[in-house]
Amino acid sequence: MKLVTFETKNNEQIIGALVNANTTIIKLQAASIARDGKSLKFFDNMLEFLRGGAEARHEAQVIIEYVSSKEPSGVTIPFDSIKLLPPVPLPESIRETMTFEQHIINAIRVKMKTLGRIDEIVEKIFGRKRTLAYRINKSWYERPIYYFGNRHSVIASGAEVTMPHYTEKFDYELEFGIFIGKKGVNIPREKASEYIGGYTIFNDWSARDIQAAETGGFLGPAKGKDFDTGNAMGPYLVTPDEIGDPYNLTMIARVNGEEWSRGTSAEMHWKFEDLIAYMSRAETLYPGDFIGSGTCSGSLGKGCGLEMNRFLKPDDTVELEVEKLGILHNRIVADTMEKNINLKKRDWYGGDSL
């Protein structure tokens, strides 16, 4: 199933299932009431749907079949007539990762500058394990790494993303991710797939110049990632049964219609099962927790502007397309605040000493 959250003119949030080649939304709660006169908690919002697990998915499928056969009035709405919200407007948490080996290798070589180009030549001659980038990255091969994002800064497909006034190197990241659909702690890897409630596309917007300035502090990322509208998700929540193999999906990024990035989920070094097992060590995961894949880079292309030294500007439109998950698109707008704060230097707080 493809599921959406949308907003009515009365600011009510409704969840629905897409049918008829994604042109029509079945309002699940309204259809439940039409069927037998009662509402179901599963359909109050997408968090409740995820908490409902297999039972909620079964009830939704039954309702889809009911609407298809009985065609009750007042329970459907055209997809192109609604205001789309993120699939889960306020996730329980956001954990962002780096699962694609080539992305982190590329990012390291960007920092190495001229030496990075020499390192690429070394790899072609002697193999990756003889490179400096590989040696710098050694700890990444030992365990998945991640950080927490701001769950309050999530926006939907079609929403505008505000480019922070303090950055000159604004960037996208070609990603997808999962929502946890079952509570668990110390989850074995072999059972981890049972805890995936759904998939969606993810764009982790980034201020690269600020991120680079912050990394020397051995903590973060901070303002390089942390700003309003910084996490785009959508357009749908797609249940695992509709995906099949999540590690064979083509992923594409376009800027103003031009393809900038292409990759495949087949090149994930750390799979979602690895992430779930690692993250749940001595810590409970809850339905509605989100886990991002990190930037998709690999043999087919580079997954963000940083790796190509290409950056975004106001009025650019970015589309991320992931096979079976749809297209997440957002337009960048300028920050209305004047660019009078420089986060690269110590004058950002208005002085030159603490």
Describe the model.
With 354 residues, the protein is α+β, with helices and mostly antiparallel strands. The protein folds into 2 domains: 2-85, no CATH class; 93-99 and 144-347, Fumarylacetoacetate hydrolase, domain 2, CATH 3.90.850.10. Helix content is 23%, strand content 27%. The protein contains 8 helices and 19 strands. Strands 1, 2, 3, 4, 5, 6, 7, 8, 11, 12, 14 and 17 form a 12-stranded mixed beta sheet that branches. Strands 9-19-18-15-16 form a 5-stranded mixed beta sheet, with no helix packed on it. A two-stranded antiparallel sheet has the order 10-13. Strand 1 (2-7) and strand 2 (13-19) form a beta hairpin. Helix 3 crosses helix 4. The radius of gyration is 21 Å and the shape is globular. The model is unreliable at 349-354 (pLDDT under 50).
Tags for this model:
354 residues; alpha+beta; Fumarylacetoacetate hydrolase, domain 2; 2 domains; disordered C terminus
Question: What's the topology here?
Answer:
Layout: E1 2-7, E2 13-19, E3 24-27, H1 28-36, H2 46-70, E4 76-78, E5 83-85, E6 93-97, H3 101-112, H4 114-126, H5 132-136, E7 146-148, E8 154-155, E9 160-163, E10 170-171, E11 175-180, E12 196-204, E13 206-207, H6 208-214, E14 231-238, H7 240-243, E15 250-255, E16 258-264, H8 272-279, E17 289-292, E18 317-322, E19 326-334
Parallel strand pairs: 6-17, 8-14, 9-19
Antiparallel strand pairs: 1-2, 1-5, 1-14, 2-3, 3-4, 6-7, 10-13, 11-12, 11-17, 12-14, 15-16, 15-18, 18-19
Helix pairs in contact: 1-2, 3-4
